[in-house]
Amino acid sequence: MKRLLPILLCFLAFAAPRLYGQKTYPVTFSATEGGTLTAQALNPWVNFQSGDQLVAGTNLNFTASANKGYQLEYWEINGERSDLTDYAISLYNLQAPLNVVAHFKTAPTDGYKIHMSVIGEGEMTAHIGSSSYWGGTSVKDGEYVPAGSRVAFEVTPKSGKTIGYWTINGKKDNENYGKKEVVYTVIAETTMSVEIVDPVYNKVTFEATEGATIAASANWRSINSGDDILRGTEVTFDAEFNPDYKLDYWEVNGNRYNSNSIKYKVMEDTHVKLVARQKDKFPVNFSAEANGEVAAFFRVKDKNYNISFSEITTGEVIAEESQLVLLAKPNEGYHLVGWTLAGDTIGKGNVLSYKVTNGDNTIVAHFATGADTESVPVHFSAGEGGRLTGQASIFSPSYVQFPVKEGFPVKVDTRVTFTAIPDSLYLVKSWSVNDKNQDYYKGKKEFSYNFKTEDKVHVEFERFTPSIITFEASPAEGGSVEVRDFNYENVKSGYPVPEGSKISVSARPNLDYTFDYWEINGRRSDHYTVSKISDYPVWDNLNFKAYFRKIVKLPVTFSANGDGSVEGKIGYWGDKINSNDIFEEGTTLYFTATANAEAKLNNWTINGVDTLAGKTQISYVVQKDKPNTIVANFISTAAPKAVVTFTYDGKGELACTDKLDNSPVTSGHSIPIGKILKFVATPATGYSLSGWTINGKELYPNQTSIEYTVVEGTNDITAHFKQDVPTPNKVKVTYGAATEGGEVSALLYPASGIFSPIESGDEVDYDSNIFFETDIKPGYEVEKWVVNNEEATYAGKKNGLTIVVKENTDVQVYFKKIAPVAEYAVTFSADPAEGGKVKATGYIGGQYKIFKTGETVPDGSFIDFEAVANEGYEFEKFTINGADVTPDSANPNKLSQKISGETNIVAHFKSVIPKITITYTAGEHGKFEAVKVQKEGEDDVLINSGDKVEKGAHIVFSVAPDKGYMVDKWFVNSEEVHSKEVNSYNATFNESSEVKVTFRKPKLTLATAEGGKIVAKVDGTEVPNLSDVALGAKVSIEATPKDGYELTALTANDKDILAAKSFEMKGDTEVKTVFTKKALPTTYKVTLKYNDLGTISIKEQVDLNAVPEGTKLTVVAKGANDKCELKSLTANGEDILKYKTFTVTKDTEVVAVFVDHTGLDAVATQAFSIYPNPARESATVTGLAPESVVALYTLDGQLITRLTADRLGRLQINLSALSDGTYLVVTEGATQRLIVQH
Q1: pLDDT tens, 315-346?
Q2: Pairing of the two strands 730-737 and 809-817
Q3: Among 417, 564, 573, 988, whose Cα sits 20 to 30 Å from the Cα of 314?
Q4: CA 627 → CA 132, 604, 608, 1220, distances in Å?
Q5: Closest CA to 644 of 618, 610, 673
Q6: Residue 375 pairs with which residues in a beta bridge?
């Protein structure tokens, strides 16, 4: 198959009806002897017949079905044999005549052998019909599978490795490169091989021309142009076009393709280019012939597949392939006959869907007399502050979404969905139908209504007070923040939402990041700790900042302890993993423990803790603060064994098998105790099974198949075969009562289904059903039944007996007197006694009775107990004779008990925590709410002022000051209290309490300072009252120093604002200033001295007679010619030759000494020695004057360095930093060449 799999997003059409102007091709298909072939066109799924003409571009599906004993041999497509083996195949984008033949052959009885191999580090498994995730039947290398089996081959590479090429029956399969699972239909002996390779990454780049963009994704994640992608990955490229553009072609590595979306398997560095072209445009004319009107709309679908419409006028020029919807409105007393295009009828309904084509686009609506009784006009309107649109749908002859227009008709009972679009700073107030309010839709932007009559829908808007919502992510690359309003619509940062509404805020981490915490209005939130904040109340401007952090990646180890194994996967359906693989924190892993034979899972040890006893499948979340070790602990289940012997007498056969796996069992072998065995006795001709002797007991008469559980000790089983005797036609039945206490009668139940009485001694047909019924005297009961002198244990003490008579039969019933019923005392009480009381009622002898503690009741009586708690107590539990009772979830304080012995019932009560009343009020300029904090794991409870709560309850009070205000004081029972939090107060309450909070604007204090004055301004206006500055206001400070002073410090609540000179009022604020007297600068004189071999100057533009103290100066030296060199440079005697800079702290004399190296290239007679020469890393110079200075130059006279010889006149020169070449070593009176060769 090709690497490119186009996704065709076109409408499909078939031979009948045929869409105007579309090209078609014949498609034929057949099957050879042994099977059948059917065909369907896709999207929509429609069956077609061989020889039908299908529209170009259609996608096709062919399904082969083999007859019994046959199999698919191969597919033939347009005369060529295909490698496809599936019984169902799909062929895409019909572009030529097509012929498909399915060839069948006789299927082998044994099926076909499967061969599997892995080249590299990894393992392969196979399952018939499914992957291992769905519990398919396992297949091993060399085993046979039935012909036509779909086999899933799965590969698990070693950690750090990946999957390369698959080879199927000797042919390398490019399509499946990199896949972990390949499903293959076996129609011949099959060899499956796969390579395990090191990961290889290829760069993927993409671009689009004007009018188009590309969205690329791989493995469900977006990718960017230039990303490195694992080889074998399938990348999806989706084209998105501006309205006036369409696809021209795709170009992938030089090859062209045509479809709006392509999938491409990356096998090399890949470049994708999307080329778009402008659509051709054509005039669209529409009109009503007479007695009606027409409206037309342009349909737009955005990238999220949302449909919108804009109305157009006749004659407008519209781009080709644009989708239009036309609406017809007949005049009163008329109805629509149909729509025509160039004289051809193209529709008959009031709604017409039309695609602009290359040609004449003139559409006319035709009307005739006669009212349209199947439609009703739609009326809708909007009040001030917004507008209203509506959409509906029709489903026949095809599905079409269309806009509604005021006064235009729709079919009766059409459901119209209206959308209210508020203007800026408006929201939906209410909806009404025929002036009747629709309260359910109050405040909602959408309203749906079924028009059955001529009704009118109206929407009202109202203006809201805005609060600005801003949000951001930190770091920006870590993720993003999404805010949705009360209508679940996205809110942009910096945009308003209604004050008093609720919003939802979500932090969405990017790849390799996770959510850390929220910062709300500049403060880290301890209350909101998860990535999504729901229903956050808006009472002021809000800023949300989501902090993200890098995800930690950790190793996870897992192993088995004992006789079993452990398998791990990423997620429930994910890929298999290896122990010590690396995972991101928060990754969910699933582990499955599989016990070997005669073993079972005991429990798991997770991070050193034993847990999850007997649970064979567990999930685990990787944690950054844990060792992430998982161990499955197995224990032996091998049962003790016992010898089982079995035989038979008479003529026949006896077989024994293990019930669990049907494996044969041999007499005399040791079998695990508890094992269930199945015995089957097969009589010889003329014999039948009379019964079994099992460990000395005669059991199971006439039963040829039995099950037996192996026990400790003797396990001896004998089957008895007896020779058959001729079946009599008639048998005699006798019966009677063997003891006093009652009588017995008998009824014959023949095949006719009508009972008839028989007397003792009567003869009946062989194999008849006889029912024996007793008439028992008072005070007696049946003791037993005896049939042919053997007790019928299966009958028990029932008052009737039914048997099938196959021989002369005698039935005797035995009666006995009923023993007196025992009675037992029942006591009941409350614990503690003051906690409540216990009621006991029931029926004795059919009479209702209220019991007192200590009374006796007959054995088997049922008594109902009810516990009633006194004030200050609540019921806790019942105990019976000291043991706890599992309560009835519906009525825990009630108990129904059968009495079978001396019984003591105790109802236990516990004291209830007393309640206290909490009231709370807020002063002007703020709102107030309170929450009772619950136990760990329970949701906190919102309480209202005046509610009762348990004594000792911990309550958090939260306030929302009005805009510009802040909390002033908190009071509890009229006493002022202090809170660490700005807008909340929390405490534990042990008595009824009143909590009050007051609000005020923050106070601004301007501290005066000598040397100047300051003024505070808001919005450019001086603040007249420093106690009336709104919270959140931006305050600017104007500081004016006196002459001779300068502003040197400016703080707001000790925070430096010297540069900004402004701050935001976040609470009471004190502004302080420091004005400092200006100091006159100290200056010094700088003198420059140099000889006639060069000059020096100062780089900075300063007056050298008055240089300010602390000024850093740079010396610029220039020799008289290119052979003159600056030999020394000092400032007040300090060497500055290296950097040529100094700082002025006093009068300074700068002295420069230049030397002339003219004639340096005329090397003097050798007066010293250099070795080695040529040299590599270093050279030694000898014969120098003690402690003399030696200079190293390039041949063009550039000084490299100066060195000093030791006291013996020796010098070592480090050459590692020099390039290969010739250099000059110069000392006083001598020069010599040094050759450097590394």
Answers
A1: 999 998 889 999 999 999 999 999 999 888 99
A2: parallel
A3: 417
A4: 29, 15, 9, 57
A5: 673
A6: 411
